[in-house]
């Protein structure tokens, strides 16, 4: 029957696409409620990662779904959006993904049901849709998730939680982001829940409801509650710039213990951190049941790896367990140069250093010359210790740029560092890392400088700044910048446009 259905659907393709050239990817069934907004995302890495054209149709029509955002049913980017649903919208919808020489289709079998939220049936029983089933564990703190997925143009706010049609209140319940935390779960916490939010789209407001059936699972003792993350293992992954990437987080947990599982970056949920670009997203969770355990998989998808992704930990959380991976380029270096600079005590000199480091260096080396710099004070994570910033990130750089001023006491960055950190510099120098010394003013006496700086000066020399820190000094063709560029590493080759996604899993 599925083969016949997919065969019949091929007739709905637009005239310029051959039916035998379009490959069927999947058929999904959706049964949402009438009277409220609904959306379906056709983003399907890696099929939609490159330059493709996505078009929605309703079978058997050959006319594309409208892209007029004022229409009740319309396409926005890869999404099809219903504002709101009616029972007449039931049917089969297909998303056609056209590439340069490829064609793929995703089919959605939409059945719109008339579900009464908090209505009463003839036998007095509460009628609630059970679109989502979730579990709370007795005797511990747990949480529920509100599953509302809409495109960026839809703003969700005013989230409220209900149990048996009454709004949830009390000290044991805390609503945060799209979750409801429940402390000290008991058997009475089971039942029919719903999360309700206000959805605003181009000035129009709607109410959207997600109904949840909650069961209570008994927990016997504390042993076995802590989940085990099999992968990632606090490891690094080599990936080319511009490539798509999918990384699985594999977790084992006991059958009676459902911890929260999610991906975070910079202490934020991935979907929230990349809410605007949606370039990096958390995927759907899948699981496999074993005799005593459950094996979970939740992935993180990069539509395109960018330079800012390298060197930062992407963390998979499962309850109290956490593990991360870090992306790195195949040659092992992420940045072209690490910039280390002093904090002079004189205000005028401090202003000159900041102007050179924060304005002129990025303008010339990054914008005009295309290098990637790690500037101490600009590119580290908030709250990172100085020693950790230097120790972790300098290893990811191909060059080390040190800005000097004549006052020996002004070089507080190095003077305040531990001997271990100074040893890191010496080790890097001995391992062949090239260092570029830039004298903001002529340094006549190096004897008051740390020994590591004296050694660098003897081995690599120094380039003296020439200019007045104005726009005339911000030209890459001047003599000073030609000297700096001579010591910088070779330019990186551009990323391949035909990169295929990498899949990392245990």
Judging from the principal axes of the Cα atoms, what is the shape? elongated
CATH homology group of the largest domain: Toll/interleukin-1 receptor homology (TIR) domain
List unreliable stretches of 5+ residues: 1-17, 120-130, 414-420, 495-500
Instruction: Write out the strand line-up for the largest beta sheet, numbering strands in chain order.
Output: 10-17-16-12-13
User: Number of helix segments?
Assistant: 8
Share of helix among residues? 10-25%
**CATH-assigned fold name of the largest domain:** Rossmann fold
Oligomeric state of this protein: single chain
Task: Describe the sheet with the most strands.
Answer: 5 strands, mixed
Query: What number is the mean pLDDT?
Result: 78
Portion in strands: 35-45%
Task: List how many beta strands DSSP finds.
Answer: 32
CATH architecture of the largest domain: 3-Layer(aba) Sandwich
Structural domain tally: 4
